[in-house]
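Backbone geometry:

***
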Amino acid sequence: MKGYKGFDKDFKCRDKQYEVGKTATHEGEVSLCNSGLHFCENPLDILKYYKPVGGRFASLTASGVSDQREGDSKRVAKSLTIEAELKLPDIITAGVKFVLDLVKQSKE
């Protein structure tokens, strides 16, 4: 599943170091907001968790994704492969595309 993730200025999330081109994994159970590797399907939702100024962002592929959902597009997975670092304009563009794709799907 494709997704997006925010990080601090050092490309860390909850003391876990991430790197473009690498896969991060979680051992054990995944549970939304409790354990596992979190990401968002909607790129704009990551701005709820990381500030646009000072944060870093990336596109990713998630595996072992839980079916759990709560309030937005935040999801939890067993592994995340970080594909590319994105700048804020990239997140906005991807967010607009995400919303337009949803509208298109609902019309079909």
